[in-house]
């Protein structure tokens, strides 16, 4: 199940993958392009995942059913 620690565990995984991309990117004239592309991809995917997870974990709007009659809501 998702809890508060999964954000930090995901961040640690992304930092590890970004460090690996930094050190193990192929040498040559396109090394900066490889590094930038991989790290930006990892960070973008992490941000999308984290925002989606947090939005589901703590929703700002409480869902309400409109098809229930008012006198059955409080019983």
Automatic annotation (TrEMBL):
InterPro entries: ATPase_V0-cplx_e1/e2_su. It is found in: Endomembrane system. One of its GO terms (molecular function) is proton-transporting ATPase activity, rotational mechanism. The keyword Iron-sulfur does not apply. Its main location: membrane. The chain crosses the membrane at residues 7-25, 37-55. One of its GO terms (biological process) is vacuolar acidification. Keywords: Hydrogen ion transport, Ion transport, Membrane, Transmembrane, Transmembrane helix, Transport. GO terms for cellular component: endomembrane system; vacuolar proton-transporting V-type ATPase, V0 domain. It is a multi-pass membrane protein. Belongs to the V-ATPase e1/e2 subunit family. This is ATPase, V0 complex, subunit E1/e2. It comes from Lasiosphaeria miniovina.
């Amino acid at each position: 199940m998702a809890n508060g620690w999964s954000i930090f565990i995901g961040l640690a995984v992304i930092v590890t993958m970004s460090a690996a991309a930094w050190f193990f990117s192929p040498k040559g004239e396109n090394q900066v392009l490889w590094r930038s592309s991989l790290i930006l991809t990892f960070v973008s995917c992490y941000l999308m995942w984290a925002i989606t997870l947090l939005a589901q974990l703590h929703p700002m709007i409480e869902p309400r059913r409109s098809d229930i009659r008012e006198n059955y809501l409080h019983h």
